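Budget justification aside, the reviewers requested a transparent look at the raw inputs and outputs of the sequence design task funded under Objective 1. We therefore reproduce one unedited record. The lines immediately below are the structure tokens for a 220-residue chain.
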């Protein structure tokens, strides 16, 4: 399955390189893949340092989002009125671009004395929270009527049903959601670095490249 993707990527990069060479496009406008590769080679130490900072923020945000998402999903499952009230709000929250919310979140947190990694982690957690909640709620409701009838036959209470049936049934849904959430948390970490004036992180590196017109650095 990987061979077609590799071939497609190589063809795309070859066309890109040829276009830049034939049109003599300036690297300041559109660098060729060879220029980007050279930029990666030259700045690999700096990029590794910035990537480590961003991944650290994303890891904190991802962990927070998973913890709160699991707790919220359990509450939504047991409280139907809460699920009917909150799910539309959760869906609506995802229609607001994170680049619009990030500065507001930063300002509010800074006003109460929360600085450093946490504001960026909160933005990262915000993006990855929704997929996990949706997946967990669906997973907790996955057991069919026959399985529930069997638990009633055993006279199992709600806690036992949750631990022995609903949680195990939700695991496939949870891991499918985590695949989406981990990517979203990385995007959130990068976006969170943009309005904070961070000096470390991929977002800070992108911003510095934009300020100084270093297009190759941005692409790298």
């Amino acid at each position: 399955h990987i061979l077609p993707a590799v071939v497609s990527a190589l063809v795309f990069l070859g066309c890109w390189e040829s276009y830049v060479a034939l049109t003599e496009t300036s690297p300041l406008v559109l660098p060729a893949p060879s220029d980007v590769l050279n930029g990666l080679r030259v700045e690999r130490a700096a990029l590794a340092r910035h990537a480590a900072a961003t991944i650290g923020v994303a890891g904190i945000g991802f962990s927070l989002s998973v913890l709160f998402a699991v707790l919220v999903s359990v509450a939504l499952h047991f409280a139907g009125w809460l699920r009917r009230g909150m799910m539309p709000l959760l869906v609506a929250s995802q229609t607001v671009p994170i680049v619009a919310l990030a500065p507001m979140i930063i300002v509010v947190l800074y006003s109460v004395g929360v600085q450093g990694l946490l504001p960026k982690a909160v933005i990262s957690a915000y993006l990855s929270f929704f997929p996990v909640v949706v997946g967990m709620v669906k997973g907790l409701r996955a057991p069919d009527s026959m399985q529930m009838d069997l638990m009633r036959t055993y006279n199992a209470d709600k806690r036992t049903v949750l631990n022995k049936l609903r949680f195990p049934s939700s695991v496939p849904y949870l891991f499918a959601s985590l695949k989406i959430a981990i990517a979203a948390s990385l995007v959130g970490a990068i976006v969170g670095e943009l309005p904070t004036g961070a000096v470390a992180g991929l977002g800070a590196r992108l911003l510095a490249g934009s300020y100084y017109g270093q297009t190759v650095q941005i692409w790298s």
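The longest helix spans residues 158-193. The chain has a mean pLDDT of 88. Computational costs for records of this kind are itemized in the attached budget.
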